[in-house]
Amino acid sequence: MIGYGAGMPVAVVTDSTAYLPTGHDVTVVPLTVVINGVEGLDGVDVTPTEVARALSARRVSVTTSRPAPEQFVSAYRRLLDAGAPGVVSIHLSADLSGTVESAALAAAEVGERVAVVDARSAGMGLGFPALAAAAAAAAGADLAGVRAAARAAIARTTTLLYVDTLEFLRRGGRIGAASALLGTALSVKPILHVADGAIVVRDKVRTASRGLARLVDLAVEAAGESDVDAAVHHLGAGERAAVLADTLAARLGDRLKARYVTEVGAVVAAHVGPGLLGIVIHRHP
């Protein structure tokens, strides 16, 4: 996090489901993961590996919870007291978590210098808008300008996911329209799309290899003719993620301006289960 003082930029806040690359000027408020009744902060006390191990043990309970409004109040006041003229707080979809509601309650308490934005996604589907907001703030944009930069980035970002099974999404109630697929979940490999904040089925294939090939096809389709940044997410599948990133880079060529490969954190891990691979495409203006 950057230091603040007179003349410093608007501050940007997000949550721990953004999976940002290193070197960003963004404050991260963590969600909570609960494993068999023991709470820990996402990315601080609980790792994705621990969650994946717990999910594989059927008798272990794994749940998540949003940050309390007080956590956001503390973050906002600390940034404002340090000299930030305002705060833009960008969070994962309200359809997937109550985090943005907690942020909005905190903003109402702190005052009009805090603006809350629902990114309608998670992972770098949230991270790219947060980075765009931070870049606008660093360039001197005011509160309205930073918020507008985040919203414009949301409209230019597409999130696609491959999962080995819908079972973990079903358990957590996060699959939305994908529920229609449950009857055949054991015989297909679903490709999911985050559409206006909800997780829906985009396609389905019979094998993992076809699923990953289709995931790349859909990502290239989402890129269109634009220059893009791309993020590849995984859970316990680092080698497959690296191959996926290389395949995507070869397909996009010079249009790919930046790429990131990151393991998802404990909160998303708790809901998607082991084997996740995802691609987030962010189209440049």
UniProtKB/TrEMBL annotation:
Alphabetized GO MF terms: lipid binding
InterPro entries in the cross-refs: DegV, DegV_C, DegV_domain_contain
Keyword vocabulary terms for this entry: Lipid-binding
Domain of life assignment: Bacteria
NCBIfam families found in the cross-reference section: DegV
Protein name as annotated: DegV domain-containing protein
